[in-house]
Queue: 2 jobs
Job 1
Amino acid sequence: MESAFIDGLELLSVRPTSGSARPPLLFVHGAYAGAWCWSEHFLPYFAAQGWNAHALSLSGHGRSRGRERLDALSIADYVTDVAKVVGSLGEKPILIGHSMGGFVVQKYLETHEAPAAVLMCAVPPQGLAGPAVSMWLARPRLLVDLNRLLSGGRGAFETLREALFHEPLAPADLARYLRLSQPESHRAIWDMMLFSLPHTARVLAHLPCGREALFVMGAEYDQIIPPASVEMTARTYGVKATIISGLGHGLMLESGWQRAAQALADWLQRHDARVGGGQPAARGRDT
């Protein structure tokens, strides 16, 4: 795995053993996380299937610069981060955003083109208010712990496990993931609640095939962005949502992560076929 810094932004990359005619993939993490969440499974998986796979840490996250001013960072700042990394790749990547990262991808597409985009358990274009209310009604303790993490504290271990995962996870892995988690910018959270919602028509206008270049996926047991919110995102963009059974919000780290990775790989292969690019992806084993 390669590690580089683009204007102070951490970029992790895994490349296929032979050259690829496909556009690169750029994975954008969600709140409280960093590029590390993609390096566990998804980057090597997609590189093995023939894609140049990259993941950035947004400003103030992972090993990127800006941790000292995290709380002042906005969604617009995160969009600027994505634009800087995209400009360094030499070719426009397919963007894959998880949770807050999916919101950042939508905002990026208001003003920038991409060959395709994937919204994975993404904050919907209507914002965080709906999911937050649903969480408060169903799991008030979870919302309290997430707010504590947002402010730099530590949430209850079991509550955060339930927030992120549905399948059993090795205790050592879970402890490591929670150690790597971090606070999030209050300003960015407020942007997603109300102050910087995406203009969906502009989003579709910057995808070359419009809604056919957009994939919306979620997880059956997601406690943070539940399937109803994922379905709302899909309806807003005029596409059909794919809900991965048996997984929670942190689907790229679940023990059954390959089910999510394979669904994404299948869609990428179909998209390749529609636009006539690349070679068919080898089918991975479903778990």
Job 2
Amino acid sequence: MSDSVKLTQEQDRIFSIDFFRGFTMFMLAGGLGGLFGKLDPGSGGPVVNFFQQQLSHVEWEGLHFWDLIQPFFMFIVGVAMPFSFSKRWARGDSWKKTFYHVLTRCFFLLVIGWAISSSATGSNLNNVMAQLSVTYLIAFLIMRKPIKWQLLVSFALIIVSDLLYRFWSVDGFNQPFVAGHNFGSWTDMMLTGSLDHGNWVPFNAIPTSAHTIWGVIVGMLLMKDWSPRKKIMTLMITGTIGLIVGYSMNSFIPIIKHICTSSFIIVSGGWCLIAMAMSYWLIDVLNFRKVPLFFAVFGMNPLFIYLMGGSFRSFFGSLVNPFIYRIFGWAGEATIIVISTITIAVMLWYVCYFLYKRKIFIRL
């Protein structure tokens, strides 16, 4: 039996979900996101410049590919939730028991997220784990409601967030789309006592809950007894509508990831749906599995790799870079950086594969 088949059976869910999550984790922790940022933009040419731009966050207004990685993660966590909880409820777990489990998980996500981003003297809540602790809880609380009510809550969160930014009247924080002078910055000041976080704000957890809620709805759709064509068309059409609406809003509500404006939430949600449709079509319909297996294995231990990825990259770099610089020194700095980054990423993947083969899954 092939690894890809075994992986699908063990997880008892659609393989494209594992791929999507693994790809997202690979981008978050694999080190490739900063690959082109290490190269000299003046000597790389248009191709390198394009990747340098797309693999970095927009300074303020606009949207690059790298700005979609966190929405992808929030979204795919939601997609997996119906599969996970339906199994727990099918084996007899009560809602109360699963709610206690969710509360415990969210508490540790918040504490760990705060700890890894904060210093000895300053606090910071602006990271994926801390925000997921909020979005996950909200999505769970309403996931047994009809889909129309889940959609209503998701858009209510977006609208309320937008209104707070527009009508917040505290002096110095009443300019909705100005960096450091908006409602989100005020919440950052109140929660952490500082604005020294690159204009990222913890309040983002509220509007981005929509991504996790939409993920739950997509998970429910994928569990339906629909034809693959109907599932794909539903995702593609809805995602395309999200792109049209989101980009159209940009003229009066700028797309800003740092404060997760409503236009950003909708357009990034559209990209999430389209990416999920493409993953499902390629992997579960066309049965293209070998390359996706690489990413799926990477996503089997998301908490472990998110927390330890940086330490492993530094350790592996200290092992391989002396050899790479001596063997490929003749090829130039750009080639050395590429070879080093890819080599370290493969070594990091092997750690995940080692854990997967031994059925070691570190979860909250």
